Amino acid sequence: MLADTNLADERNRRARQVATALIVAAIAGMIPLVVSDVYTMNVLILTLMYVALSQSWNILGGYCGQISLGHAIYFGIGAYVTTAALLVAGILPWFGMLAGGMTAAVIALFLGYFCFRLGGHYYTIATIVIAEAALLIFLNWEFVGAALGLQLPYTGDSWATLQFGQSKLPYFYLALGFSLITWLIAWTIEGSRWGYWWRAVKDDAEAAESLGVNIFSSKMAASGISAFLTAVGGGFYALFVSYIEPQSVLGFQISLLIALPAVLGGIGTLWGPAVGAIILIPIGELTRSYIGGSGSGAHLVIYGTLIVIVSLLRPEGLSSVLSVSKRANGVTR
Description:
Layout: H1 2-29, H2 38-63, H3 72-89, H4 93-115, H5 121-139, E1 150-151, H6 169-190, H7 193-203, H8 205-210, H9 215-241, E2 243-244, H10 246-250, H11 252-265, H12 272-290, H13 298-313
Antiparallel strand pairs: 1-2
Helix pairs in contact: 1-6, 2-6, 2-9, 2-11, 2-12, 3-4, 3-9, 4-9, 6-9, 7-9, 11-12, 12-13
């Protein structure tokens, strides 16, 4: 009887989580009704995009405990595959983003086969080195424009090519939908057998292995899903800005911006990446806009300061303050 009660409570709790997410998405969807400024809309779109990207990173770094600082490689692959597919083969972005996601997932599995044999900080260092190597390759790869990058010509507003020059509103709703989908994927995984396995691997890999968890396969699955979603985000970004070059999609700053929101908001939580992105991304955009070149790097100082303060005062992440996130072991805060 107690087990049945606990199961019912768990189902109700998860149902409330989904209801909360849908309500938050609905409220966010009404923001354009009161915000028409183009600059503000750009900031909102980038914020929603990084909500999704950080949640994608959280699947690997938060739930599975594999801290990657090289996710820019998947973001860049998604951006370049989506752009090149449209320019070279005329493949519509809807399919180009999927192709970019699958390409990134395959590369993640290939890299994971070797990198997951490394432990702890050695794995993190390996991800940085590989991402920097990818940056150098793209800087010198003439097929993708080398250092000059690729430009998407504007052919008129179209949902087929996902180009909108008259209004940013479609990009806003695309970014909102992407962030909601990544949240739902994380929510599904969190309550699944995979989710329990990954959290076990994160907490104590040896203990998890002794209980029959295949550690290597768990890491590989988390890496593939995380890379796929990150690459889809890269494809969306390429369409949004219509121009990409290696530094803008493969630079180390991209990897940091993908990981930091989850760190600030709460690693291994459903709402942590969203809370972190809502705080960090507008700070970065506003700093660059109002301080400009004279304040280059100011946003990084602010990021670092916030991370230190949160680490000292609220190591679980800012989302714990709102009492809407949950610990990786499934206990609601």
